[in-house]
Amino acid sequence: MASKLHQMQAKATQVSNYMLKNGSAYYKQLIEKNKQHIRDPPTVETCQNLAKQLFYTRLASIPVRYEAFWKELDYFKHLLKHRHELKIEDAGIAALFGLECFAWFCAGEITGRGFTLTGYHV
Questions:
Q1: Which of the 8 DSSP states describes residue 87?
Q2: Domain range spanning residue 22?
Q3: At what angle do helices 44-60 and 62-81 cross, to 10 degrees?
Q4: Are 93 and 99 in contact (CB under 8 A)?
């Protein structure tokens, strides 16, 4: 056990030294590569302004998304009315989508219970 701890400490020291030597160059390269996304001046006020713009832009997009939702719902109602025209491929895709939603629900439930299958902590 002590040898594993010593190995981990040595590896951590190695990584720390590497970051100390190359971290600044990596940061500069990253900033240069993504320069088009940086707003000048890069201040707290600019960040707060951008956060407000993002919030209100998303708020303004709600009616468009609401309308798109109702169009999708109308399309689904149309499919239900004309289900005799439904192709097997479309039914398969719908079944796979439903199965995926159920799987994500189950994964969320398991995660919420602390990664236990029964809900009891052992």
A1: -
A2: 2-83
A3: 30
A4: no
Entry field: residues in the chain: 122
pTM of the predicted model over 0.70: no
* Interval 56-103: pLDDT, tens: 999 999 999 999 999 999 998 998 898 888 889 988 998 999 999 999
Please identify which residue in the block is written with the tokens 């040595």. Answer: 10
pLDDT at 116 over 70: yes
How many folded domains does the chain comprise?
2
- Class of residue 79 by CB neighbours under 10 A (exposed 0-12, middle 13-18, buried 19+): middle
Residues 78 and 93 in one domain: no
pLDDT score of 119? 57
Q: State how far the Cα of 13 lies from the Cα of 19, in Å rounded to an integer.
A: 10
